Amino acid sequence: MSKQETNFQFLEGFDKRVAQLAKQAEKYVHTDPDSCMFKLRLMVETMAKKLTNLQMRSDISQDLGSMLGALERGGIVPRRQADSMHAIRRDGNAAVHGSPTPIPTAMRRLHEAYKISGWFCKVIKRGSKVNLNDFAPPEPPAPLDQATKSLHGKIDELEESIERRRLATRESLLMFGPQENVKEVTRRIIEELKALDNVAAAAGEPIIDADFVALVMAMDLEQIEEDPRHGGDSRQARREAEQQLDFIKQHLAEREKVFLAERTFLIEQRNES
After folding, report:
1. How many C-beta atoms lie closer than 10 Å to residue 123's C-beta?
2. What region, left, alpha or beta, does residue 247 occupy, with left being phi > 0 and alpha being psi -120 to 50 degrees?
3. Domain-ending residue, one of 98, 120, 143
4. How many domains does the chain have?
5. Residues 218 and 267 in one domain
6. Tens digit of each residue's pLDDT (9 = 90 or more) over 104-148
């Protein structure tokens, strides 16, 4: 893709603010990947606010994580798009808090933002036909040397590995149904997550995003708690589910920090060489 072209021109006819943020992120992906992630996070937040205003009640929290959770639980954002939006939110937050963004990570999130954009256009303008072309990665301002290519390859492998593990964990959690005993479900979830975590730790990798898993588990455990055989109402179910999830969420948040540290280490190795 040449410097004058953009993957996001089609967005102009649907939401000019989203289009502007997408184009800015695309412009920065090679020269300032942290700024790329800032723009992508703001782009996702703008999308989430618009979807919330169009299709949700007015008292939804304007915190991005809360909005995405509400949109997903309400069936407005499908899981595939929600996963990508959470990934952009997560890496955008990491960049805001000083964790450096590798170029391959920014490029991966830019590609995800492109796919989300096509879906977003169809949602906000029903009946719209949006046929996306293949994503054209922006070209670097100068050819990459072999050491940089090698570093980018390692970061890509790390990103791919963590995303596979997140997906596998999410799918395994969705197997639990309302007929199961709450304590037994909680015990099995903790055991499975610890087992996955041990495997990942041995390989020097973390496994999953705490907020992401907590969202899925809260949905499943609330459904279990609300089953008439447990005799609880919706609010009580939520309270009990949140109590059970607190320990697991804290544990996973620590593992997520390890992932960011590994990614930062790879960047610093390159800078020192």
Report:
1. 18
2. alpha
3. 143
4. 2
5. yes
6. 999 999 999 999 999 999 998 887 788 888 999 999 988 888 888
